[in-house]
Design brief:
This protein is an alpha+beta fold. The protein contains five helices and ten strands, in the order H-H-H-H-E-E-E-E-E-E-E-E-E-E-H. Helix 2 runs antiparallel to helix 4. The N terminus is likely disordered.
Length: 354
Amino acid sequence: MRSSRCRPLLVSALLCAAVVLAARPTAADGAPGQEESDSDSGVSAQVVRLYRDAAVATQRYEAARLQAEAQRARAQRLEELLDRERQKIAALREDLGRIARAQYRSSGGLSAAAHIVLARDPDAWMRGQRVFSRTAEAVDNVIGRNRRAEARLAVDEAKAAAAWQVLDRRNTELAVLKQGIEQKLEQARWQLQGRADASVAAGSCRGAVRLDQPSPRRTQEWVTPVEAYTLSASFGSGGDHWADLHTGQDFAVPIGTPVRAVGVGLVVRVSCGGPFGIEVVLQHADGYYTQYAHLAAVTVDQGEQVVPGQWVGQSGTSGNSTGPHLHFEVRVTPQAGSALDPVPWLSVRGAPVE
């Protein structure tokens, strides 16, 4: 009896196993899915790389801008010096004209021999010679200072012109480089978002993309979910976009921005459908849960352990979203409807949101 009862169960189990084996894709059948995943990783990695390139270009552009301001201040000081030099030269030329006019009036255009003949006595002639000699020396000194000042002026003007040319050329090159990177980044962002929208429409996740991310710094137990941001909709705010009050804090960031785990946790949910679009939910050791929603890609799998600062996804505008941002929630359960204000929750843990 016992054996006969087990036999139908055994047959059913074998049939089920056969169906499962038949349904499993072969290596060839699975290849397109792998290619799709690799393609997703490529787009996500391209966005990350372009973000880094844009950051470097922005830093270089900012350094060049600061250098331009310093150069502008130096050029202004140089221009002030040049103005003073020009004023000195004008004064020297005026001195030359005055000396020449005085010499002409005193000598009357007579030669030195005529002065000797017309002198009343030798002493008067000697005094006249000394005055003449001093006058000639003064004229020579003024002429020399004038020539040196004009030479310095020419050199300084040439230096200033060359410095401005170099600066203008460098700023133009950096501006073109930065603009090119930003255009490529914008194209890659929307390509990434297009794949996210396709996943949400299908209601199935494409799987985690593995990115070459920096090693998280373990100096902090808690961090903000994104590194640089602008705060938008806050917890408890009202609006036409939500059936009830807003249940999280929104961080306005461009598509593809790395989204970080705020603390040590376990990935308990990765979902790609519904109003939150692509979302990740983490469980933390203190019993709280954090949600990261409207993503364009996920970089973790369900069941994976994460550390503070580790990337769990890339921001986007999937699901019920009016623009690129990260919707961040803190919950007391994994499900929606148990949220609390995440801003003070992060602040008391040493990760203030400003």
